[in-house]
Amino acid sequence: xxSQFEIKGIHDGLLITVGDGDWADFRQALLxxxxxxxxxxxxxxxxxxxxxxxxxxxxxGSLRDKISEQGVMLRAVISKSAQTNExxxxxxxxxxxxxxxxxxxxxAFDTSIGGDEAMLVKRxxxxxxxxxYPGHVIIVGDVNPGAEIIAGGDIIVWGRLRGTVHAGxxxxxxxxxxxxxLTPTQLRISEEISIxxxxxxxxxxxxxxxxxxxxxxxxxxxxx
Length: 224
What we know:
- By secondary structure, the chain is α/β, with parallel strands linked by helices.
- It has 2 domains: 100 residues, ACT domain (Alpha-Beta Plaits, 2-Layer Sandwich); 105 residues, Pectate Lyase C-like.
- It has a 6-stranded mixed sheet, with no helix packed on it. Strands 6-8-10-12-13 form a 5-stranded mixed sheet. Strands 1-2-3-4 form a 4-stranded mixed sheet.
- The protein starts with a strand and ends in a 5-residue tail after the last strand.
């Protein structure tokens, strides 16, 4: 069912893009995924691009209420249907994505660079610690065995990564995992899983990414 929509992190939350098919099937698939990944979605702001779907007020209102019950806020509904946009506005929903601050200035000489949302943690994660965040996660410290990180975007560890990590948890196959010592118990990017084989000595800094359908680790300085 997850193939009916795509989720990616944006600067102010998560953007869900709906594919073709029956709206009721999408609604059920989304609510099921939110229930199964409760820690990942909790507290997130959601924008939904419904594309060509023309929705009724009851359908939008019901989805907003069900999402709210999961601890998630429906912020915006983007549609190619004027009727759907009008109904969304009536329900107090936005009908377009807000631009990052860097794009609002309009200055021809603006040299600022926009970025994505990230969580910065300045400590070592020990066994039993768990982090779940819809954007990128940056750890300044080690991630010990028994610790877990789930991120909608990239995971960067300025230290030893020996716990369990899941980058691109919302389906982003372009997500990466990098660490000064990349020896995780389990490493997952989107739907691809890799278990690190035993290594001798201290490994160099590495970056893991999906290439040709597999999780591949490369030297940090050589990754492109």
